[in-house]
Amino acid sequence: MRIPFTKMQGAGNDFVVLDETRGRFGLSTAQYRFLADRHFGVGADQILTVRPAPTPEVDFEYLIHNADGGEVENCGNGARCFVRYVHERGLTTQPTVRVKVHGGSIELRLNADGRVTVDMGAPVFELARVPFDPAGLQPQASGGWQTWPLTLALPGAPATAPVAVVSMGNPHAVLLVDDVETAPVAEWGPLIEQHPAFPKRVNAGFLQIVDRAHVKLRVYERGAGETLACGTGACAAVVAGIRLGLLDEQVDVQARGGRLTIAWAGGRDLAAPVLMTGPAVTVFQGEIEVPDLA
Fold it and tell me: What is the pLDDT of residue 114?
């Protein structure tokens, strides 16, 4: 099967975008994994699929598959690429669109300066909805909120990672570090991702506070490994920093692939939506022969 695709990136988080508005490709998990493979496929952190609106309340449906082929709930950097894609392909002329994602909907706005703002909705703190199972764990009070100490089974001796837990439509564990450049992302990331307290696994964020309006962030993404940027991870990190009393309402997040701006009025209203603004760039377009993989 030969299918057309578009390669895009947002702050270095890269995607293969597929247009299924005129028909489904019917790809298997293994075929999504093939597309994401950087040696044999196109190469991407996630595969994004554009589908027609399933209900009148939204303009499109937006599906995300990680590099491991598994479907996930949300992707902020991908959402920015999504709205640029539907404009560039002539699928809409509206500057603001609402799209269905797994478990809800989000609003996307293409700005005059070329950047894209995504209304990511309100963060979720209810542990069962993250989902997060606190059985056997004792929360530690911090700045009016709490962190949860996770025991990590490292070679030699276990370590403790006190993480803030939040969902941005997908689960996140945010760990404060002194320096993201020396943070043990490669060693601790997969252990946090697969910790038994997270029944659907988790994205592990390593957050360095520069000042109340600037942070640095690295994210070990569930099913993808460390990426150059993670939109929902940036949102979760800023939300956690605000709830821990460390950040103001608007924060620039420096990821390895670029800068994102996150705004959340959570100090006044925990149900306030998180707004994420950042770049979205088309890299190239093409077609690829996808093998018959079960």
Answer: 84
Average pLDDT over residues 174-179: 98
3-state secondary structure at position 25: coil
Domain residue ranges of the chain, discontinuous segments joined by +: 2-115+280-289, 127-278
* C-alpha–C-alpha distance, residues 271 and 34, integer Å: 39
Q: How far apart are the first and last CA of the chain?
A: 13
Q: CATH 3.10.310.10: does it fit domain 127-278?
A: yes
**Does the domain at residues 2-115+280-289 carry the CATH identifier 3.40.50.970?**
no
Q: How confident is the model at residue 156 (pLDDT cuts 50, 70, 90)?
A: confident
Question: Could you report the per-residue pLDDT of 47-58, keeping only the tens digit for each?
Answer: 999 999 999 999
Which amino acid is located at 97 in the chain?
A: V
Residues contributing to the annotated binding site: 13, 46, 66, 76-77, 170, 203, 221-222, 231-232
Q: What was the pLDDT predicted at 122?
A: 96
Q: Residue 36's pLDDT is what?
A: 98
Question: Mean pLDDT score of the chain, rounded to an integer?
Answer: 96
Assess contact for 235 and 202: CB atoms under 8 A: no
Q: Cite the active site residues.
A: 75, 230
pLDDT of residue 141: 97
CA distance readout (Å), 163 to 27, 135, 137, 160, 177 = 36, 15, 12, 9, 11
- Residue 54: is the preceding peptide bond cis (ω within 30°)? no
Hey, is 231 helix, strand or coil?
helix
Tell me 272's DSSP state.
Answer: P
Q: What residue numbers does the annotated binding site for substrate cover?
A: 13, 46, 66, 76-77, 170, 203, 221-222, 231-232
2-115+280-289 and 127-278 have identical folds: yes
